[in-house]
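Hi everyone,

Forwarding the result from last night's run.
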Amino acid sequence: MPADPFEHARALWFEEYADSDFITLAGRNIFLPIVLNQLRGKPADIAGAQSVAKEKLPPFLDYLDRSIAGREFYVGKKMTVADISIASPFINLKHAGYSLDAKRWPSLNEFVERLHARPSFKKLYEEEKPIFHKPVAGLTS
């Protein structure tokens, strides 16, 4: 957490935004109907997830892209809880077969790719991949 009061508050804002809104939307409406349904032996709800990915997810991604444009991190000059909170849901989206449209959200895409390339993210993703990753044709941003 940043020591500066403004940066501290901003980091808390992004953490809460990711935890309350973004994870709820992406997790409950994309990850669960695809990945967890398949783990439970149920058919993946591609149509429902695709609808959310096309209609409800873009405003969140627009905001996140604008907020990271021209910056390395969401708050300050080093990684904070804000960055971890924002990058983490994209792991579940990746498991569900979702990938960001790099042309539409270039700054966010660069940020997510950079954080997911970090050893801490990469290692955990690779450990989860055999369990969760079931490629799904047709799920797009």
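DSSP finds six helices and no strands in the chain.

Cheers,
N.
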